[in-house]
């Protein structure tokens, strides 16, 4: 089984050519070159040219482009540039209408951002659109739209976060958690990564190089966890060879779903050895 980990996905502003070049040397599992919120209107054209040039470079992992949203003056030029440049995926902000997404026919994986109340309510239909590879939570815009107040543990957003995970997992798509804004707070970022993994996210979008290692570690598999997965699989394979449909491992009953989970962990561990934290 081939696993492409997306533990950390780094946003890089399209109008910052030096940051784009540096991103190639970092250990993020994927990079999003951003033409939307990170770029002021007067810099949109220059940012698009920077991204066009960067798409011709060799990148160590998947390279996505966050285009400007539907209905903006830049949307068509952004998408055309990304598609002609051979991008690995297009990130579409403020996705709300599954019919519109289905009609884009992009021919590359689409990553809708769920960052409005309507986007959350329609997350299951959006996840079901052919060509959608996964969904990314945009918590900053969602927080503003919901008129929530700051609270520990992202309490006002928990329903929305779980709704995105539920929709993505139901359709076999990849859910990515939102960014953490305070780049000076590694402890808070680590706690939010732990929460995201507990909720079921596959990885986290990040905005600073210092956040990459924490996300890779939190959403990855340790050597100890990989060894435990190997042991469980060995016990399971022995039980199956003996014609048993369940087995006992460390005092607990295990069945096929536990073996599948252990295999997924082992596959992820193997994949991340080529892209360490």
TrEMBL record:
Residues 7-209 form the HpcH/HpaI aldolase/citrate lyase domain. Mg(2+) binds at residues 115, 141. The keyword Lipoprotein does not apply. SUPFAM superfamilies: Phosphoenolpyruvate/pyruvate domain (SSF51621). Keywords: Lyase, Magnesium, Metal-binding. Pfam families: HpcH_HpaI (PF03328). GO terms for biological process: oxaloacetate metabolic process. Substrate binds at residues 66, 115. GO terms for molecular function: lyase activity; magnesium ion binding. It comes from the Bacteria. Its cofactor is Mg(2+). This is Citryl-CoA lyase. Signal peptide: none annotated. It comes from Deinococcus aerius.
